[in-house]
Write a structure and sequence with these properties.
The protein is mostly helical. The protein has one domain: Tetracycline Repressor, domain 2. Helix content is 63%, strand content 0%. α5 runs parallel beside α8. The longest helix is centred in the middle third of the chain and has 24 residues.
Length: 204
């Protein structure tokens, strides 16, 4: 139902109607819509299987990130929720722990591994969101600027625009993943003391 009509249209009442029962029958199993959404996230997150604990950790990380991206494309509407949903169910925290184990296999230092966990999450979640529900599908009240106007006034955008199209998504995703993993592999053998110091920016 979510993939057909979107998250905003999903309701317990609608689910009850689709099942041929009263909404209270659904509430017998799920105390609230929030609990039902938690269960939906648990249901799909297990599709995202981390590779078994053997072999090259970088190759396993690569496989894991492609698996997460594939999950997003299988459930693009629900992924809009999954991307920002707090995974605080037993299923959710186990998945996070499995991914954390993968990263720590590549980067033994716990602090640096935690930071790499966030960096890789930023990239793969952002890429998957952009491909399934992002910029090209985003809302805007403005009348679109014509291709002719872009060609005349925004030559750099006009030159790059063909490479933003869907047929380039795979190679763009690969470029980002391989760049990150190359840096991660290089850093994996270094000590925590060699890690780059975080940049502290002044508050505005």
């Amino acid at each position: 139902m979510i993939e057909q009509d979107g998250l905003a249209a999903f309701s317990v009442r609608g689910l009850g109607a689709a099942l041929g029962c009263e909404p209270m029958s659904v509430y017998h199993y799920f105390p609230s819509k929030g609990h039902l959404l938690d269960a939906l996230i648990d249901h799909v997150i297990v599709e995202f299987a981390t590779p078994p604990p053997a072999g090259d950790p970088i190759a396993r990380l690569r496989q894991m990130m492609y698996s997460f991206r594939a999950l997003a494309h299988r459930h693009p509407k629900l992924f809009q929720l999954l991307a920002t949903h707090r995974l605080n169910t037993p299923t959710g925290v186990r998945v996070i722990d499995e991914v954390m184990e993968l990263v720590q296999d590549a980067v033994p230092d716990v602090r640096e591994a935690a930071q790499w966990f966030r960096v890789l999450s930023y990239y793969v979640t952002g890429a998957a969101l952009d491909e399934t529900a992002g910029y090209a599908k985003g809302p805007s009240a403005a009348e679109p600027v014509s291709d002719a106007d872009i060609a005349e006034h925004c030559p750099h955008l006009a030159a790059a625009a063909p490479y933003f199209k869907e047929q380039w998504w795979d190679s763009t995703f690969e470029l980002g993943i391989e760049t990150l993993l190359e840096v991660l592999r290089a850093r994996g053998g270094e000590s925590a003391s060699a890690a780059p110091k975080p940049v502290i920016r002044p508050k505005r």
